[in-house]
Design brief:
Layout lengths: L27 H4 L43 H5 L1 H14 L24 E2 L2 E2 L16 H4 L15 E2 L2 E2 L1 E4 L23 H10 L2 H12 L11 H33 L2 E9 H18 L5 H22 L8 E9 L8 E4 L8 E9 L9 H10 L43 E5 L10 E4 L2 H4 L9 E5 L11 E5 L17 E5 L4 E2 L4 E2 L3 E9 L5 H4 L10 H28 L9 H11 L7 H18 L8 E2 L11 E6 L6 E11 L4 E3 L3 H11 L32 H19 L4 E7 L2 E7 L3 H12 L2 E6 L3 E6 L5 E11 L7 E8 L1 E3 L2 E3 L7 E7 L1 H4 L9 H10 L3 E10 L1 H15 L5 H12 L5 E12 L3 H10 L3 E5 L4 H10 L8 E5 L7 H13 L4 E6 H10 L1 H8 L4 E5 L3 H15 L2 E6 L5 H6 L2 E5 L6 H5 L2 E3 L4 H41 L11 H7 L4 H5 L9 H6 L2 H4 L9 H25 L5 H22 L5 H17 L9 H4 L2 H28 L3 H6 L2
Parallel strand pairs: 19-33, 19-37, 33-36, 34-35, 35-36, 37-38, 38-39
Antiparallel strand pairs: 1-2, 3-4, 5-12, 6-7, 6-8, 8-17, 9-15, 9-17, 10-11, 10-16, 12-13, 13-14, 18-39, 20-21, 20-32, 22-23, 24-25, 25-26, 26-27, 27-30, 28-29, 30-31, 31-32
Length: about 1300
């Protein structure tokens, strides 16, 4: 016999002491007579036996896994034994929350153990509801039996499902704290990681580490030279500037994240009315108990008993499945406050804030029902197509019954309508921000939840798998417990727990957008970092520019020169050293003296320059709205060699427009569409009476085309063309999956269209523009209206629909035309026409339509124009033909093996041959403004462009052609579905690309890309980076990021990634430079990017103008700062040699600090205002940008040129000063230092190409400051000598000898070999 101690918690005490009031030895039979020896309960009627005459022990008197006391071992527990006995249950019950935080609650007199824990298809053997116990009480495995969908019937969030954990979500209850908050975060640092990470990044650069060691060396007394602050203050200032910039950038990111996280959403708050009242009463009772603070024991006991009373009420009346009187409130909460289990209410064009499972969808309007009820019943009874799943067409209640906040209602009132009419339960979402696909996705609510009122949502439990980054996969279940009254007793005749599967079709992931004109109620299942979007996003990283690494390498060279110079000087002096000073101490002192060779002010100048560049970018009026989010890498914009771009929303607007049609003998485009409009008006005007009240006959494809004009002018050819145009327009108006809906905008009724593809909507809109409007569509009928007469002209019954698939590349529909007049309809006549319409890509439709001599040529012409072509055909079916097809199709649809292929084969054999070719349409995906010219300019600038998209192959090809990403002379080599092709196919594709790398563009799908990266990574990358353009389709966000990383690592070149959607965030963060475009539906890419722009064509100015200037200015600034530090070190070297190689400072304290700051910093820093060409020339000659990628502006060659100039000028300045003035005297110091300052100011003027007024101000102002500070330099200069003519002529002579030779050489070099910017200027 099972004992209670057999299901104790593992950490429970083994046994209590004697004399304790223990219930450990209670038999299960004493608790429930229904428990047999094998631990199962058997009832004759198969249901839970509710024996009211023999009351069971209340659950509150049993503590699972706890003992009731420890006797005298703990006198405090003994004092409160009675209360602790009951309070122990409260502790345990609070610990038995399921994954959504719901309390495990059951009725007092319900059986303790599950009568039969074995589930059969979601129903227990005894027919009892799991909600009464199994989902409320955690039982051991040997009792609970087989696990449920989540791996446990207990609702334990830690249960396993397959190879990962699942979560059980009870709607309307608090989730456990382990779920992450629903907050967007693009910040790089936390308050704890900021200093460690930033300091590590800073000291990973050699020159920062070098100065740190120099500063630390001043702690050692024998190495100390001058004041310690001379070395520590500049380092601290550099670190403060750099860390301050990082902190400000990250604070700005957090502020932008906060804005996104503050977006408000409507949430349904589901509360028990009686519990609200009880809480109010308890609040009064608690305030009364608190007034008795002097009686500690009494207050404690009262508080504990009050908690037990609350638990009793919960146990008795809060069982899962109890609906009682649920108060439904609509409250607005911020996105970051959403929790797992919350029910969110969304409307059209709202961004989905978290990963949701759709519970209910309903429209805000009453469906248009132009067909009588009897006809609807007739349609339903005769319908034999694919859409037989839901034949209930009850009208949808008006949304006026649904109040907005603040609102409270009971469950009986039902917040949203519980209508089940056609279309209800369905909604479309846009996923281009998630996966890059432009097609809208159809999402449906589970039939189990669609019919529920909002108050009944508390009976639901969602079982979902562990968080995953697979955006196209989801497996879960939804369970509905039976209703219960306030006492927890079931009110349903059927006590089974209903369950239904959940798939990807029932979900809406974060950052998708609701596209339908409908209201959706959905429950949150994943939040924050566990959403599909977040899991597909790589973590942000700190980025350092290539210029930083180049300067770091130059610094190492300078340090090596310093060390070599120090060793040489000590060796000349003698390795035995001087008395009181070892040789290695002398080497270290020389290293510190020459530390100015590696100027610490270099980082200060570069970081301040980056701030100026960022300011220029943000204040540029030609690119308004541009934001610099990472101000540490603006120079990288001038080094880009690979541009990886998203398609949807970046290059295109995701707005389709039908531009051209061809009907076999003539094509129509632009203004010629007016002729199409006249044909349509004439074709659907027959039978119209002047009496507006008189009904007109409905049109069918067999109706004669009657021209509006009469006489000889109406030729036979014109009638034939008119008839063909009418038939094509009619086919386009019927062959689609578009549903019209009406909504009020500014007091006017506006018709909008919903469909899975924007192409479909574009075609329907075009049909309306030429005179044939889609008035109504449901699952079974389509109604068309003439725009000119506002009369219904065509009405059809939908028999079968064959939706578009990526593999089939076509869409078909079988229709039966209504005949007669609008007031007297009939589709049951044996003579009713049945037609099969189909449209699709020309690659598949060519073999389906009848033989012709113009299709291939016309589709090729449209493709060259970048238009998406659709071939339209039709076929008339007799009633017998349709019945035969329907029988075969139904039989194939019930096949258990190869169902899809069997159904497709039936369609192919019965329908898809010898279709009448009606025409070809060309749809344009509208490009962003100036995309063509922008791509051409970037290509001329030497940038290789890759387009990475999640869209279809055909769509990407058309956009690549229309955007001029691929030129007319380039061949597009397409590689698709390599994983299912022979291995030789991949090798053949690589060999073909190697043979023509300059004239071939690659078009590859995600499947083939994965195959290449897995098996031919090096070969593929080595070939792909040479191609002028690469188009990758069906790419996941992870694949996009992998491509960016692969190009960076393989080529060592700078990669820029640009996108506008959440699916582009990983790619943007993986790139050297990430640019985000502020999209229509979201700012995820913009927030995560280094630079944010508003439209694609702004990128050209960002790169060609601002990027080029930033890089050239920083390169010149860096080399000049190195020159400034090197020249003073050369002076120090000559002085040390002249003073018997003693490690004494030439310029001490203020002279050393002032030289690098007050006396030279402003003029040198003014170089950030220089420019070699104006903006017009930079855009006219993008080749100027191309030469930057060679790195000639800052290279080893230019570096050593500056080193040579520094050695020459430093030697002349110090050597002549020592010759013309007494050695080691204040006069010599005053002469050499003055010449040094003048030399730097004039060298700045020599380097300026285009003068800015601030440059002149800084040079003149610095000169005035230096002259004005001379009277305060008496501790270093001989002031009396400074104001003499002897000082003046010496300074002038030394300065001329120092400056003239370098200037003459520079002028001669510019004349013989002028740089590119002088060539384009004509100088």
């Amino acid at each position: 016999m099972s004992r209670a101690h057999e299901y104790h918690q593992p950490n429970a005490p083994d046994s209590p002491n004697e004399g304790s009031d223990s219930d450990v030895e209670l038999d299960l039979e004493e608790l429930d007579p229904g428990v047999a020896q094998n631990g199962h309960v058997y009832y004759g009627d198969g249901r839970i036996k509710q024996d009211q005459s023999k009351r069971h022990i209340p659950l509150r008197n049993l503590r699972v896994g706890r003992t009731r006391g420890f006797g005298r071992q703990d006198r405090k527990r003994d004092i409160y034994d009675g209360e602790e006995d009951a309070h122990g249950l409260l502790d345990e019950t609070l610990g038995q929350r399921d994954s959504a935080g719901s309390l495990g609650t059951v009725e007092d007199d319900a059986p303790l153990l599950n009568p039969d824990a074995r589930r059969r298809s979601g129903v227990y053997a005894d027919g009892g509801p799991r909600g009464f116990l199994s989902s409320q009480l955690r039982l051991p495995d040997f009792i609970s039996g087989e696990s449920g969908p989540g791996g446990s019937v207990t609702g334990d969030s830690g249960a396993t499902q397959g190879n990962g954990t699942s979560r059980n979500i009870s709607i309307g209850q608090d989730p456990p704290p382990r779920f992450p908050p629903n907050a967007v975060s693009n910040a790089k640092y936390t308050i704890w990681s900021f200093l460690p990470r930033t300091l590590y990044n800073e000291f990973s650069f050699f020159f920062n580490l070098y100065f740190l060691l120099v500063a630390l060396s001043q702690i050692i007394k024998p190495l100390r030279i001058g004041y310690i602050s001379t070395y520590t203050v500049p380092l601290a200032f550099v670190l403060a500037v750099t860390l301050g910039k990082e902190a400000l950038d990250d604070i700005a990111r957090r502020r932008r994240d906060t804005e996104a996280n503050k977006e408000e959403y409507t949430v349904l708050r589901l509360r028990d009315y009686k519990k609200i009242k009880r809480n109010q009463g308890r609040g009064k009772r608690q305030s009364h108990l608190q007034s008795r603070k002097g009686h500690n024991r009494g207050a404690s006991k009262g508080a504990r008993l009050d908690a037990i009373e609350e638990e009793e009420a919960n146990l008795g009346g809060d069982a899962q499945g109890a609906t009682r009187s649920i108060v439904v409130d609509e409250i607005d909460i911020k996105s970051r406050d959403l929790k797992v289990g919350d029910v969110v209410k969304l409307g059209k064009d709202r961004r989905v804030p978290a990963d949701l499972v759709i519970l209910k969808s309903y429209t805000a309007e009453t469906s248009i029902t132009p067909i009588s009820l009897s006809e609807t019943q007739e349609v339903l009874s005769e319908h034999t197509g694919l859409l037989d799943e839901n034949n209930d067409d009850t009208p949808v209640p008006d949304s006026s019954a649904v109040e907005t906040k603040p609102r409270s209602s009971t469950a009986a009132e039902s917040l949203p309508p519980s209508a089940e009419s056609g279309g209800v339960g369905e909604t479309f979402i846009r996923t281009d921000q998630l996966d890059g696909e432009t097609d809208w996705k159809l999402r449906i609510a589970s039939p189990l939840t669609q019919s529920l009122d909002a108050g009944d949502f508390t009976r639901l439990k969602i079982v979902a798998g562990r968080p995953s980054k697979e955006v196209n996969e989801f497996v879960g279940t939804v369970e509905l417990a039976p209703k219960a009254d306030a006492a927890g007793n079931s009110t349903d005749t059927d006590l089974t727990v209903q369950s239904a599967p959940l798939s990807i079709d029932n979900t809406a992931w974060a950052n998708t957008v609701l596209a339908s004109n409908a209201t959706v109620l959905a429950v949150v299942v994943y939040t924050g970092a566990q959403t599909r979007q977040a899991l597909s996003t790589s973590p942000s990283r700190s980025k350092a520019g290539l210029l930083e690494h180049e300067i770091n390498n130059l610094t190492k060279i300078l340090c090596a020169l310093t060390l070599a110079l120090s060793v040489v000087l000590v060796a000349i002096r003698g390795i035995e050293g001087r008395p009181g000073q070892e040789w290695y101490v002398a080497v270290m002192r020389f290293l510190i003296l020459f530390s100015t060779i590696v100027p610490i002010s270099l980082r200060v100048n570069l970081d301040m320059g980056k701030t100026v560049y960022a300011r220029f970018i943000e204040r540029d009026r030609d690119i308004p709205g541009t934001v610099v989010r990472t101000s540490t890498i603006p120079e990288e914009l001038g080094r880009i060699e690979y541009l990886l771009s998203d398609k949807t929303g970046t290059l295109t607007q995701n707005e389709m427009d039908l531009k051209k049609i061809h009907v076999g003998t003539v094509s129509y485009a632009n203004e010629a569409m007016d002729e199409v409009r006249s044909y349509v008006r004439q074709g659907f005007s027959a039978g119209i009476s002047s009496d507006a009240t008189q009904s007109i006959s409905l049109f069918t494809p067999s109706s004669n085309y009657l021209s509006g004009s009469t006489g000889a002018s109406t030729t036979r050819t014109r009638r034939e063309i008119g008839s063909r145009v009418r038939d094509l327009v009619l086919a386009l108006a019927l062959c689609h999956n578009v549903t019209p809906s009406t909504e009020d905008q500014e007091g006017q009724s506006v018709t909008t269209y919903q469909a899975s593809s924007p192409d479909e909507i574009a075609i329907v809109r075009w049909a309306e523009s030429v005179g044939l409007r889609l008035l109504h569509r449901d699952r079974h009928t389509i109604t068309l209206q003439s725009v000119d007469t506002s009369r219904v002209v065509v009405r059809v019954k939908i028999l079968d629909v064959f939706p578009f698939t990526s593999a089939g590349k076509r869409m078909g529909i079988i229709l039966q035309y209504y005949q007669g007049t609008e007031s007297l309809l009939s589709s049951t006549d044996s003579a009713a026409e049945i037609w099969f319409y189909q449209k699709g890509a020309d690659t598949v439709m060519t073999s389906i339509v009848a033989a012709n001599d113009w299709l291939d040529e016309e589709t090729a012409n449209m493709a060259r124009e970048g238009l998406r072509t659709l071939v339209v055909g039709r076929k008339k079916l007799s009633k017998q033909q349709y019945q035969e097809f329907s029988a075969r199709y139904k039989q194939a649809s019930m096949s258990l093996q190869n169902r899809d292929s069997s159904m497709a084969q039936v369609i192919k054999d019965s329908l898809e041959h010898n279709l009448e070719l009606l025409g070809v349409t060309g749809v344009e995906d509208k490009l962003q403004k100036d995309v063509k010219s922008s791509l051409e300019l970037l290509r001329n600038a030497g940038i290789k462009i890759w387009m990475l998209t999640g869209d279809k192959v055909e769509t990407a090809r058309c956009v690549a052609i229309s955007a001029k990403l691929v030129s007319r002379t380039q061949y597009i080599h397409t590689v698709t579905q390599l994983s299912s092709a022979p291995e030789s196919a991949a090798l053949d594709a690589l060999s073909f690309l190697r043979s023509k790398p300059d004239s071939t563009a690659l078009l590859i799908d995600g499947d083939s890309l994965s195959h290449f990266l897995a098996y031919h990574r090096q070969d593929f990358v080595s070939v792909a980076v040479l191609l002028p353009a690469v188009i990758a389709c069906r790419c996941s966000p992870t694949q996009k990021a992998d491509i960016a990383t692969l190009i960076r690592k393989f080529t060592k070149k700078r990669v820029l990634c640009i996108g506008d959607g959440g699916n582009d965030v990983s790619m943007i963060q993986a790139a050297d430079v990430g640019v985000g475009i502020v999209g229509k539906e979201g700012r995820q890419a913009s927030l995560a990017a280094d630079f944010s722009i508003t439209t694609f064509h702004h990128l050209t100015k960002l790169l060609v103008w601002h990027g080029r200037n930033s890089y050239k200015r920083s390169a010149k600034l860096a080399q000049f700062v190195i020159h400034r530090g090197l020249i003073i070190s050369v002076c120090q070297t000559f002085y040390s040699i002249a003073t018997q190689i003693e490690p004494h400072a030439l310029y001490r304290d203020w002279l050393l600090v002032g030289y690098a700051t007050v006396y030279t910093m402003a003029p040198v820093f003014s170089l950030v205002l220089d420019k070699d060409v104006d903006e017009g020339l930079a855009n006219l000659y993008p080749e100027l940008y191309k030469e930057l990628t060679t790195g000639k502006s800052l290279s080893y060659r230019t570096f050593f040129v500056w080193v040579a100039v520094s050695i020459y000028q430093g030697g002349i300045i110090q050597g002549l000063s020592q010759i013309l003035v007494d050695l080691d005297s204040p006069r010599m110091v005053s002469v050499s230092f003055t010449v040094l300052v003048i030399n730097e100011l004039i060298m700045v003027a020599f380097e300026i190409v285009t003068w800015h007024w601030l440059m002149a101000v800084t040079i003149i102002g610095t000169t005035i400051i230096y002259v004005g500070s001379i009277p305060f330099l008496g501790g270093y200069f001989d002031l009396g000598y400074v104001w003499s003519w002897a000082f003046a002529w010496r300074v002038a002579a030394i300065s001329a000898i120092s400056l003239l030779p370098p200037y003459c050489i520079k002028v001669l070099r510019r004349t013989l070999n002028p740089p590119s910017y002088r060539k384009v200027q004509g100088l």
